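Let's practice the habit of predicting before peeking. Look at the sequence and jot down your guess about where helices and strands might fall. Then scroll down.
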Amino acid sequence: MQTNFGKVAVLMGGKSAEREISLLSGQAVLQALLNQNIDAEGIDTKDDFINDLAKFDRVFIALHGRGGEDGSIQGLLELMEIPYTGSGILGSALALDKYRTKQVWHELGLPTPASNIVNINSNFSQLVEQLGLPLMIKPILEGSSVGMTKVNHLNELEAAVVGATKFNCPVLAESYISGLEYTAAILNNQVLPMIRLETPRDFYDFTAKYSDDTETKYICPCGLPTAQEQKLQGIMLKAFLAAGASNWGRVDFICDKSGQPWLLEVNTVPGMTNHSLVPMAAKQAGINFDELVLNILSLTI
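Done guessing? Here is the structure:
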């Protein structure tokens, strides 16, 4: 593992809908670096920050969503020849786009729920005929379940689509898969112990992720037989690499009642808060938070 990192910038905050979570992630990452005597400094990219980057030797990207996971900051850093954490330009841009990621998976024969792009002028009755009910409505460029709605009835569709369009990006309608939700954290092409997510809410939404300390449950080890978990880990790594992602990240999926996995999305800059899943999986693998942050930093490209 690299240890001579020079001066490290931790980029956080930004202007996306996930700003507040990014600030939490960034502060946690910054503290972990400082704990290990790394010369690190936090930078909120909401402000004018580009000129400040020249003094840094390396960047830890803790930005979630647009402006952090979409290839834009990655392109800037490559132009400035500053090594950075996470996926490159292509992997970042592709993985943030849920619909195009699903198209790649579909072409490779990887299982992902049927979906379609919709807007307020779509034929909702025809959409329900194609995809069935329930449906998940999602802004394709947002994470942390921002703007997502589970639609159980045709008459709920329009309001859900209108709500998702407020995030100024295309909207995805996706067949709802009933089953158990899992996440696979990936570090340096290794899939960490998987986590099963349980919530009494309709789905694992923003509240379940960040606010519900009592009813959201994280089961790690996930409880699957070893052989089944290893098989799923192989599928998740293939899905991660197919999206052009690299170094570290997370793949979310659902297993239906038959045990069939259905791929949902890739996160190339997952959360690093006290509610976050990658640190939880790393802990199960014997890697504490500070070590995890140093591992990710050592993979800078």
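How did you do? The mean pLDDT is 92.
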